[in-house]
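Hey Z.,

So I finally got round to the 6-O-phosphono-beta-D-glucopyranose thing we talked about over coffee. Here's the setup:
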Amino acid sequence: MSTSTNCPDFVSTATKVPPSVAVIFGATGDLTHRKIVPAFYHLQKNGHLPEGFAIIGFARRPKTDAEFRKDLKEALDKFSHTKPVDEKVWKELEQHIYYQQGDLPNVEDYKKLGERIKSLPEAKIFGENALYYLATAPEFFGPVAMNLAAAGLAQKKGANHLRRLIVEKPFGIDLASAQKLNEEIQHAFPESSIYRIDHYLGKETVQNLLYFRFGNSIYEPLWDHKYIDHVQITVAETVSVEGRGGYYDEAGAVRDMLQNHMMQLFSLIAMEPPAVLDAESIRDEKVKVLRAVATPKPDYILANSVRAQYGAGILNGKQIPAYRQEDRVKPNSLTETYVALKLEIDNWRWSGVPFYLRTGKALAKQFTEINIVFRRPPGALFAGAANRIYRNRLRIRIQPNEGIHLHFNTKTPSQPTLQTVGMDFSYRQDTAHYFPEAYERLICDALLGESTLFTRSDEVEQSWRIIDAFKDAWKNQETDYIPLYAPGSMGPVEGDEMLRRDGRSWASLTND
Ligand code: BG6
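And the result:
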């Protein structure tokens, strides 16, 4: 997925991004503290930020530059993925960090922002280059983009100038709102300058899906309905909603995880090989495979999906409240914290191969993995064997313990039976390589104008088309009931039954 302009190696080759100002909207928020500032710090540490690079935080609360820098340093000490924080690197970076107080809906404040940008000492070097990062509440994404345009900050002043917009998730709450948001931001910035973030695409192991599929000749010939029985994609989290009740009760697992991160994994696993490894060719293929998922009918959806919510119980040795008792969650909420469903792709490669996707919070184990489960070989040869023939399975571990594991059958020594054994590759065994955090990679790519790892407008809309069908079918079901599951379990029994009805089961958690 890399092209020559990507930040290719976070250890040695210091690819410098162009001098620029990065304006963070929502600068006092959680995302800025947890992800964005640690990412800039690591880009500085690894030599990717050039002379003349500046960062401005824009938010409502009054604050001095010094106060803002102090807050960011505290957050960095807490959230940096490498510790301890290198004080020298931070000092180098912080002198280029500024704070601008302003109201998101007020266009006058954007004009003041424009003046402030011009007045920065670094402006002599970065000139007109700007990257705007929308890390605000989602309802402000469209208004901020339009206010930037109204204040003359979105338009390029010359062909070589860089005016880019990073938009966080969630991108809309359904197809109609995503289309409206696309219209608003495209009114202010051309599509080629818009970078919609899905941080899963910045993960090394997610990028590896394409390298692994198309960089080997031994898997791709097997990658279709002739050899694959079904595919499982699991994103399991042990965390509960912990303080994010207000947001989560509106979003649920479907909007929070399924529409974006899981649909990305789905399209990367299922897409056709692109003609070349560039942004448009890869994104064209991802859109094509989403388009090949026919909008499912309500009867199909109700028979092939499960939603559930965690009740009260013990999680990691601690008592946790039921989801409905979480702060800012409605006491009779029907929002799902777990969802499992089946998708089918109507094309030559995948016809008849189900894809089972599941995600949930407060589950037994934190892991993201994709299991490619192959067809069983004909059984006649081993009909007399005491055990059954297990299906071959390729387990792609996205996180943690990143790796790839192939499960296959061999003879059990000294017995006339089959046993399942494994070949294991662990990413972390190669300690010479630095593992950048997803946000480091994505911010660096946006600054370099490399959009492969960002979602295109049609991709987001195709994904919502499928998800909306599920949401509508559930809504029309008019039930006031949602199954509960125990925290620390792997979800409700209904999730297991969904696969059992198809003669399958979720891959076991052994060999972790
Ligand atoms: C975010 C969701 O997008 O992804 C969170 O809003 C979720 O609810 C998180 O916990 C998971 O990301 P990761 O990188 O920890 O798997």
